[in-house]
Amino acid sequence: MWTRIDGGFRLIRIAGFSTVAFVLLLSVAIKFYPGGTRFRPEAPLHYSYMTNAFSDLGRVYAFTGQRNLISISLFVLATAAAGLSVATVIPGILIREGAPARFTGAMTALASIAALGFAGVGLTPFDLFPNAHGVSTNIAFGAFAVLLIAMACWSWSNGSRFTFWTSTAFTLLLVAYNALLWVPALGPLGNGVFGIVAQKLIVLAAIAWIASQAMWYWRREVAHKSRIT
Q: How far is CA 207 from CA 19, 46, 126, 127, 155, in A?
């Protein structure tokens, strides 16, 4: 018989599969990127993990001037998968843990906004719509940061300690990253190679948080069913 707990776990499972899809799509997009960086438009003729941002995969034209059809198509799908993972993991956890309906509804709405932001990152190529791309990025990670702060506060007394500590750790990491962008003394770091690498770490940390929640609750579900049988 279908229960509230089952519904929450199914949403969490969708989030877990979505993170796998994100990693696979992004990996293939990297393989097909024609090349070039904003530091050296003519080289290298492949994706550089140190000097290419993830958003470069979503450009209509690579820095070399070549069409970037395959990578941008995969990048759009990858960001949509990331958005889906956010939109499902938050309500999934709250439903699974029996959180109050109003809190769950508010968090689900905010998760949907974050999801639209992530999808918007892929749908607004930086070389055509730099302002819209930046707004989408800010919406995605701004809403996601608020979600994790709220999850940390709620899970301290109502949820799992695992969710609390992982949410707190990501929030601190995001604060450190924003220091690179907004603290004048660190500006050169935020705008250079170090900033590009830090950006990747933030994106991957966000996906890792979602994947870790999916794995955590999957293990709990398996343990629960084994006790019943």
A: 6, 24, 22, 25, 19
